[in-house]
Design brief:
It is a single chain. The protein has 107 residues and is an alpha+beta fold. The radius of gyration is 16 Å and the shape is elongated.
């Protein structure tokens, strides 16, 4: 039992196990605070060493320019990093609403 409790965290990292669901919820909540984010879709949080890597799809108005979409992605990326310094690498994908099943904001 003691060996298992010692090895489990290391095995989770080696097998790319999903971390605490509260981290994903935090990522989605922060992203959805941006006024141009309609919702989120895929969200993957992975532990790498002491840090976490985030890969998130945000849903925005499909009529916005590429430049505006790019700016929104950077805004969301910076907000997620500011919310939790352990989120060291944050990759944001911008999607139009018609392309995905939208998870609406938690408001």
């Amino acid at each position: 039992l003691n060996a298992y409790s010692l090895l489990r965290p290391a095995l989770d990292e080696l097998t790319d196990a999903k971390p605490d669901p509260a981290l994903e919820a935090q990522v989605r909540e922060v992203a959805q605070q941006h006024p141009d984010v309609i919702g989120t879709h895929k969200c993957h949080v992975r532990k790498m060493g002491f840090d976490y890597y985030v890969d998130l799809d945000v849903i925005i108005d499909g009529n916005l320019t590429v430049t505006r979409g790019h700016d929104i992605a950077h805004d969301v990326q910076n907000a997620i990093r500011a919310a939790n310094p352990l989120f060291s690498k944050v990759l944001i994908h911008v999607e139009p609403p018609a392309a995905t099943r939208v998870i609406p904001p938690i408001r």
